Amino acid sequence: MAEWLKDAVFYEIYPQSFQDTNADGIGDFQGIIDRLDYIKELGCNAIWMNPCFESPFGDAGYDVSDYYTAAPRYGTNGDLKRLFDEVHKRGMHILLDLVPGHTSVEHPWFKESLKAQKNPYTDRYIWTDNIWEQPEGIASIKGISDRDGCCVVNFFSHQPALNYGHYICERSWQQPMDAEGPKATIVEMEKVMRFWLQMGCDGFRVDMAGSLVKNDPDGLGTIRLWQTIRPFLDKEFPEAAMVSEWGEPDKSLQAGFDMDFLLHFGPSHYNDLFRCEEPYFSARGKGSAAAFVKNYKESRKKAGEKGLICIPSGNHDMDRLARTLHGDELKVAFAFLLTMPGAPFIYYGDEIGLRYVENLVSVEGGYSRTGSRSPMQWNHGVNLGFSNASPEKLYIPTDDKPNSPTVEDQMKDPNSLYYEVKKLIALRREHSALLSDGDIEFVSDGADGSPLAYIRSSADEKILVVVNPADREAVLNVPGDWKETLYEIGGAVVVEDGKIVIPSKSANLLR
Ligand code: NOJ
Ligand code: CA
If you measure from the C-alpha of residue 310 to the centroid of ligand 2, how many angstroms do you get, rounded to a whole number? Predict the structure, then answer.
């Protein structure tokens, strides 16, 4: 594993919406460079940036039309390299977003693949033998060229799936993983990775990493595929980090990823904590963390205890955290997010409680996700400091509701969410027990709105974390002698005779 991941705290940047520097209403690389000191001051030392490559932007850049060229709206490849250099100058790291599962229909590979005559790209995508044969249960593109076949789609209809083969081949058109087409796709994807790693990026967040091989019900084919890619990285770029959008750490870590995200879909029960009718972190205290904890423990065990599981504050696909949690609830949620193993990921703006912007028309295939992708709000200047463009030219409107949060306001207020997040990140980075690879032992699983408590440990220290989001006091039996309070929000716990009395709506870290 890349050594730098151990104390990494990530900040996810959706480049469209972070900082515009040329008044065209859309964020750019220079804007990110200009805000690196802000990110560093918050305490984050790593960045994940969403796709920034040439694309018709039918899915916000997750529909790549050229893997080797930065999208001109953000800047040039040279500007991107400058971003890498500026990140490194500050002792930080940056992951690009690799989209290996599909391209845009505009990609030259796909245009070649559409042709009836056989050519080197005929098998770069997955085609059935003729147009009347539809791939069972999967959407496909058909009837848009002379090629007689249906092409398997990976996500939206304009995102044809790249061909990595099938684990189980049942139809004549389903190629095995070791066929020429799938092998050529892997060679090309390795070339893409090498290109950006050589230029200075520090690794990749990998889009839909768990579904590359088709007809692969248990993921065994996709695991094997990534296992064949990892050795090239280990040899040529041993410090490169690979983080998967997979949502099943037991599989992805076995596949060779350093970390896997818990997602708002899949088996993790992540949504139980933050995004459901009664989230565990709501002060109503009607939610439960028990199913999450059970799944988390099992995944960790299967992943060999050391595998890193990332629990993000949110991302560009989920509702904003501040849509379901409010005020101090967010602070208690961050106390949890920033004290768990695996590197934390903060979605831009979550550190100031940026809100979901309701009732927007979809932008670039965002649909309901558009409200979570609105511009970062820096100050009370034009467009809240995001851009000097006229407001109607903005990529997505800013949150213009009263009391909409800004960095400027929160930096002036010592009780702000911003300061709480900053404090928690600093604490995490000071204590080895709290780092990504420290151990965790649960003492209380947050069943039925009860407190969540766990002991984080490294070779030299143990730290007890107790969070009680509910609006009621609670008592827990906790073994050990916890004397020193390292952090407290919402009131200090009282430790007496192996019992801990925990105030309502609080989080405590004890040593
Ligand atoms: C997951 C990405 O996070 C999402 O934004 C995108 O639409 C799909 N994958 C398809 O690439
Ligand atoms: Ca711009």
Answer: 31
Span 297-316, mean pLDDT? 89
Containing domain of residue 88, as a range?
Answer: 3-104+182-428
Task: Give the residue-averaged pLDDT of 352-377.
Answer: 98
Report the candidate in 133, 135, 131, 111 with the shortest Cα–Cα distance to residue 122: 111
Closest residue by Cα to atom 2, ligand 1, is: 207
Cβ–Cβ under 8 Å, residues 129 and 149: yes
Answer whether 0.90 is exceeded by the pTM: yes
Pocket of ligand 1 (CB under 6 A): 59, 62, 99, 155, 207-208, 245, 316-317
User: Dihedral (C-alpha) 348, 350, 354, 356: value to the nearest 10 degrees?
Assistant: 90
Q: What is the per-residue pLDDT for 306?
A: 66
Nearest residue to 282 via CA among 459, 434, 466, 505? 505
Task: Quickly state the pLDDT bin for 479 (edges 50, 70, 90).
Answer: confident
Residue 255: name the closest of 232, 221, 287 by CA.
Answer: 221
Does 498 score more than 90 pLDDT? no
Longest dimension (CA), the chain: 80
Rounded to an integer, the average pLDDT of 122-140 is: 97
* pLDDT reported for residue 1: 82
Ligand 2 centroid from CA 24, angstroms: 5
Q: Which of 428, 460, 480 is the last residue of a domain?
A: 428
**Which ligand is located closest to the Cα atom of residue 27?**
2
Name the DSSP class of 324. H
Q: What are the tens digits of pLDDT across the range 28-37? A: 999 999 999 9
Question: Same domain, yes or no, for 403 and 486?
Answer: no
Strands 66-70 and 53-54: antiparallel
Q: Mean pLDDT for the chain? A: 97
Which of these, 417, 266, 427, lies nearest to 344 by C-alpha position?
A: 427
Q: Provide the token pair at 173.
A: 């058109």
Ligand nearest to the CA of 26: 2
Q: Which residue puts its alpha carbon closest to atom 4 of ligand 1?
A: 317
Per the structure, the count of domains in the chain is 2
In DSSP terms, 499 is beta-bridged to 477, 496
Q: Are 110 and 160 in contact (CB under 8 A)?
A: yes
What local confidence, expressed as pLDDT, does residue 420 receive?
98
Within-domain flag for 177: no
The tokens 């690389």 sit on which residue? Answer: 29
How many alpha carbons lie under 13 Å from residue 261 in its C-beta half-sphere? 27
Residue 304 is predicted with a pLDDT of 79
Q: Report percent pLDDT > 70 for the chain.
A: 99
Q: What is the CATH number of the domain that holds 209?
A: 3.20.20.80
